[in-house]
Amino acid sequence: MTPTNQLGEKLIIIGEHNERHRAQVELILSEAGFLNFVSVSNGREVLEQLRKFQRSLEDVGLIILNSNLPECQIDEFCLSFSSIDEGVGIPAIIFTEESTEMDSKQVLRLAQLSRQGISLITKPIRGRDFIPLVNMSLILRNERHLRRSQEEQLLNELSERKIMEARFKYLVAHDELTGLANRRSLEKKLQLAIHRCRNFDQEGALLYLDLDRFNMINDLEGHETGDRLLVETVSLLHGTLDLDHIAARIGADEFCIFLENVKQQEALVIAERLRQALDGFRFVTGQDSYHISASIGIALLESRRMVSHPSVLIAEAHQACYAAKANGRNMVQLYNDKDTQACTRRSDILWVPLIREALMENRFFLVFQPVVRVKDGAITHYEVLIRMRGKRSDIFSPGEFIPVAERMGLIHHIDLWVVEKSIDFLASLPENLSHISLTINLSGVAFQDQSLLPLIKQKLEITWISASRLAFEITETATVANYQQTREMIARIRALGCHFALDDFGAGFSSFDYIKKFPVDYLKIDGQFIKNLLHDETDRVLVKAMIDIARKLGKKTIAEYVESPKVLYLLKTLGVDYVQGYLIGKPEPHLLDKTAISIDDIASSVQSTQAA
User: Fold this and answer.
1) What is the pTM (predicted TM-score) of this model?
2) Digit-coded pLDDT (tens) for 159-188
3) With contact defined as beta carbons under 8 Å apart, do 364 and 386 qualify?
4) pLDDT score of 268
5) Which of 95, 165, 195, 573 has a 20 to 30 Å separation from 52 between CA atoms?
6) Cα 21 from chain centroid?
7) How many whole angstroms separate alpha carbon 65 and alpha carbon 15?
8) What is the rounded distance in angstroms from the CA atom of residue 455 to the CA atom of residue 442?
9) Are 206 and 299 in contact (CB under 8 A)?
C-alpha cells in the first residue's frame, strides 16, 4: 500500500537500538514508499529530534519505538509526546516482544498504553501487518490536525469580534506593553483632579519620568530587549511606590505619575525615592549589565495657581524633566515658570512655524557688507548675511531666528538656501563687478550635511561662476562638534577652488591649534579684540600676534567691527590685510556704488588730528 504524497512527506522517527531490527524496519518502510524517516538508538536522541521541530510539530507524522529502548521510560515517554501539539499529539507505534518473553508488569504497562490510543505490534515485524498500521496512524494524525484547524477556525470566527471589541476598549485607555494608563486616560483623570482642586482645594503633583539611557540600550540590544526594560521599570515603580496613584506611559520611555493630596515637599521626597530606586537598578541582558537612571520633573497642582487644562500640567512637568536632563540627568527638578530654558523652549515653539512659513514663502533675503583690502582700499569681497521678513514687513536679524533654527533642525534648509541665492547673486552681477567675491556664513552643522557639496558643484556648473569667488566662514566651535568630518568636507569644497576663513579667531582656547590643522585662507579676528583696541594694550598685543602668526603661515587677516577712523588707522599700522565694519559700510541688500574706500585719506585725517 503506497502512501499519498501528503502522508509520505511526514517525518517518521524510529527509536530502535537493535541494528538488525532497525534495518528491517527501514527496508519495509522504503519498499512501501516512505522515504522521510530518521533512526535513533535511545530515548534521548528521540527527544533531540523532536526539539528540532518544536515550532513545526505538524511536520512529524509518527514515532516508532522499541518497548525496551534505552534511556526511555516508555509509558511516560509516549504520554508526553502524545499530548503535545496543543492537545493533538503525535501517534506512536510500539514494538513489543512476544508475551511469553515479558513479565506481568511489562504486559500491564503496554496494555495501559494500548487503552490510551498507542498502537502495539509484536515482533517479528511483517510488512503486511506493519504498513497498514503506519498508514492508519498517519491518516488519523492528519484527520485530527484537520479537525483541530476547523474547530479553531470556527471558534475564532465566533469569538474574534468580541475579542477585538474587548481589546479595543482596553487599548483606548491603556498602554498595551506595560498595562499602565495611556495619555488619553491620564488626561481624563487629570481633568477630574483639576476640577477637585478648583472646587474642593484638593491639591496634588504630577511626576514626569524619562529614562536616561533607554535609547542607547534599545539601539544596542534591540526593541525586544527595550520592551523588557520598560516592563521591568514599571515593575520597579510598582515595588517602590503604591501605584494606586494615577500612573501612565505617555511616550516610548516616558511615564507620568499623579500624586493626589500631596504638597511640594512630599512630592519632592517621593520623586527622590523613585530616582534612587531607578539609580540602584541594574538591567541584565545576556552577559551585559546596564545602569538605569531617570530624570524626573514635577509640576504642582495648587489652588493658588490654577491650571486650565491637563495638557498644561503635563507640559509643565515635561519642561521640568527637560531641565533635569539638561542639568546633568539622574535628578529631580521642580517646574519653575521663570526658568530660562523653559522660556527658550516656549519661544522656539512660537518661532518654528514662522521660520517654516518664511522658507515656503521665500521671505528670507540677503544683505551684503563690504570687506576692504587695507593696502589699496579696494572692495574685494562682501560678507553675505541673512535677514527674515515678517508677515507685516518687519525685519528680523539672524540673531533672533538662527539659534532657533539650529535647535529645531531647520538650519540645514537655511544653509542651502543661502548658498544657492549667493551663487545666483554673483551670476547676476555685471561684467565690471566680476572681480567681486562673497564670503558666506554657514551654521556649525552645515559641513555635516552631505547635500552641501553637490549643491555647490551643481550651482557653479550651471552659472559658470568661478569657485574662487566663494569663501565660506567656519567658527572654531563648529569644528569641535565633528572634527574629522568637518575637516574632510572643507578639503573637498576647497578642492573645487573655494576659499575658507576661520571666523571668531582668537575667541577660543584652541584657535592657534586649529589654524595649524584646518586648510583655511583667511583668519577673521574676533570682534571682541577690535572693540577695545584703542584702550586695551593687551588686545593690541594679541591682535599684533595674530597678524604676525597668520602672515608666517601664509594666511590673510580680516578685522571686523571697525567703527572708527582711529581703529582703522591702528589696524593699518599693525599690518592687518582686510577690514570690515560700519565705518566701511553697513549690511545692505545691494552692493556699494563704488569699488574702493579711501583708506589713506582716513588714515591721514587721524594723523592730522593727532598732530593738532
Assistant:
1) 0.55
2) 666 666 656 666 677 788 888 888 988 999
3) yes
4) 95
5) 95
6) 63
7) 5
8) 14
9) yes
